[in-house]
Fold this protein.
Amino acid sequence: MEIIKIDKLIKRFPMGKSEFTALNNISLHFGKGEFTGIVGPSGSGKTTLLNIIGSLDSPSEGSARVLDQDIGKLTTKKAAILRRQHMGFIFQTYNLLPVYTVFENVEFPLLLLNMNVSERKKAVINALDWVGLTDKVKSRPAQLSGGECQRVAIARAMVKNPVLVLADEPTANLDSENSHHILQTMERLNKELQTTFIFATHDDKVIRYLKRKILLQDGKVTADDSIIK
């Protein structure tokens, strides 16, 4: 089942009196349940492509259809609804709210979906159970390790059972042990829930877990390989 179709996508950014082409004629398809990495050096266009897939930006030319929505034609409001209802995001800096508890941080996306209290509580506890943090529900981010903070961020991304999770350098601030724990957690969620994961990364630790690797160089796809394990 195809959930993302990118066709001849070009993304330009103004640079002084000229323009910089961050993505140049990208065509890609992604199916349900993929565990895929967009791989390449800094400045290759990885995050720009991830932002367009996540409806945080739009193409300059070409098209990007995500979950049957044309990203380039979405209003700001409709793009926000698409993200809120169907997507989860994991960032390298965690982006947890420091004054809120672990429970409240994970609960936050559900408040935007108008779920009742009992449904929210059940979903939050389930998500924290997935990442092994049910004993930290009352803790605040400052009381957690970096690995625990990233596991909270994964729980927050997964709490609404999204179709698609986008992860931008999710292991950049973690040591090897925590990185592998995080990646094993995401790999398990991918298998159990058939959630599609797309990473932007240049971390070899992440690359070893991928089922598909798309190499970007200077804004162009130079390789697209399935990885048999």
